Structures are given as C-alpha cells and as structure tokens.
Amino acid sequence: MFTTNSFADFDSAAQAALTYLHQRMGLSLWMITRTEMDDWIVLQAKDNGYGVKQGDVFHWADSFCSRMVRGEGPNIAPQSNLIEAYRDAPIGQQVDIGAYVGVPITYGNGSLFGTLCAIDPEVQPDSLVDELPLVELIAQLLSTILDFFLKAEITSRREEYQQLLREQDGTTGFYSRSGWEKLLGSEEIRCQKFGFPVSVIIVNVEAAKPQAKEPINDLIVQRSAKIIKTICRQDDFCARIGEREFAILCIECHISQADFIRERLALGFEQGKITVDIGIGERSPQTGLLDAVQTAISEAQEKKKLRVKMEVEHF
Known about the structure:
The chain is 45% helix and 21% strand. By secondary structure, the chain is an alpha+beta fold. The longest helix is centred in the middle third of the chain and has 33 residues, at 132-164. The chain is elongated and about 75 Å long.
C-alpha cells in the first residue's frame, strides 16, 4: 500500500513545503507570498515568533525580497546586515532580521508571482548558503504546482458560474441575489488561496419618477442591464441584487481599474439618460470580499445623498 498522496491543492503543497524547510533549516518565519502592485501579501506562513499570519499585507518595496528579485542581494544571507541592500531595507527597521532566505515563485510564463522566503532574528551559520539548491528546487516545484492549480481554477470558475446561471434574474438575465452571494463565497476562497485582486462595483438606478408605472421601471432596469453588460469586461460577473440595484464582481481587478470601469459606466448611463449612483470597493486580504461589497454599497449611498442634496439646493 502506498504511503504518499498527491496534494489536493496549492495550499496543502505550500504548507508541506514550509513545514519541511522549517524542520530542516530552522529560521523563525517561513512564508509563501504574492506581489500585487505595491502589496506583498502573505498567502501561507510557518511562524515561530514574528506574529505573521495568512492575509497579512506588507509594502513590497520595503522588503528584502523586492531587492532579491532585482538582483541587489543574494538569495541567502546568513548575516543580512552585511548586505547593503538588506541593511537599508525599511522592513529591517521594523522587525529584527539577522538572517534571510528568499527565492522567486513564478507563473508558467516566468513572470513573478511572489516568493518563498524566511527570516530569523539571529545570525545563522555560513553553511546556510549550502541549502540554496534545495530551496530553489522547492520553489520551482511550487511554481509548477501553482501553474497547474491556477489553470484548474479558471476551468472550475467557468463550470461553477455556468451552473449558477440557473439562478438567473428573469428581467435582466444577470445572476440573482442568491447567485451573487454564492459567487462571493467562491471568490473569497480563491482570493485566500492565491491572493487574487478583486473589486466590486455597485450601481443604484434611480426610479423614473414617483408616479411611474411598474412597466416603465422594468424598462429602465432592462436598459440599465444592457449598458452594464456592454461596458463590463468579459470576465466580470454581473448580478441584480435589488429592485434597481446591480452588483459587478471584477475578477483580477485593482481599484484603479474598477474606477476606470465606473467612469465608463457613468458615461454610458449619462448618454442613456438614466440617473445612477455608483460605488466601488476593493477586496483587502485582511477584511475579505464582503467588506469590499459594503464599501461599494456605502459609497453609492453617499453619492445618492450628495446628489439629492444638490438637486434640492438647485430647485
């Protein structure tokens, strides 16, 4: 009977790698990280003293790893303060770092995903550098596993969202509120695993007028859905979550990109002569996707209050 099993996902492979490296090499903190814009996101951590956990976010430019990938410092520094690039790194002023290990983790095309890295407050023996081939090999294996599971997630997402189309809103053809809530749950899990950037856009459509008949408002909802579908990207997911409220889940999307989409939506609705209030929010690894949704909802509500106030003042 076989005594080894394949890894079920990238998480389990990463945890096994960190546990093994800690047992073999010591060092207080081992991490798998992802870089996104200026963020350095902790996806997995084996911590014995620094208090670092999954979901913590640091400034990428402050890190030893940012200097390592630029070739300014070695992959392994048993006494990191002897290396000028590491000695001058801001993170070294924030926490005690006596020794450093770091190698890149890459996408299938060779571009940077993040790092496999470790630090310890104490200086380590010079023999630590002899472990570099092993650490590089494990990083290469993790890169291969990562590429496999990222591709699998794309397929899984498509299949899952096709199934959720059964929970359609009859008026717009978008996902229903229940479908939207399931979308959020699934994407939050993916974000926790891989650190995907995700943004949310909320669109509140103003009713035609107080005395308008329901069919007129239904027509406005349908026209609004058409504008949203035309402007949003192919991989964005749109839902109708209220009578005249829409939500858009923007995959692999930073807040700056979401703001650009919002501007295009605002222009589209203006040209369509439909009054809307639009809010956006970006998922933070520390607070999750639901917090981004609430941020977008709150912003849309505040914009409505401001709009109504200005309309009253100019009446």
